[in-house]
Design a protein that fits this description.
Elements: E1 3-8, H1 13-29, E2 33-38, H2 41-46, E3 54-57, E4 60-64, H3 70-77
Parallel strand pairs: 1-2
Antiparallel strand pairs: 1-3, 3-4
Helix pairs in contact: 1-3
Length: 78
């Protein structure tokens, strides 16, 4: 089953870093995934997120306001 990974953020350096790390982890885990970057502020708020970047996996916000470690991202995406 394809994992739906979304990065919520306005394109700040931390948002870009989180997107890179999430993609790296998905490839490392060998999972089928789709990565989408959500930059519209109204769309971001619709997830209940006030701080970016945020990581959403299969519709669930996993973390917001910081860039997690690789190990944390692995746990979130698995």
């Amino acid at each position: 089953m394809k994992k739906e990974i979304k990065i919520l953020g306005t394109g700040c350096p931390k948002c870009i870093k989180l997107a890179e790390l999430a993609e790296q982890v998905a490839i490392q885990l060998g999972i089928d995934y789709e990565l989408e970057k959500i930059t519209d502020i109204n769309d971001i708020i619709s997830y209940g997120v006030m701080l970016t970047p945020a990581l959403v996996v299969d519709g669930e916000v996993k973390i917001a306001g910081s860039v997690p470690s690789i190990d944390q991202i692995i746990d979130y995406i698995k």
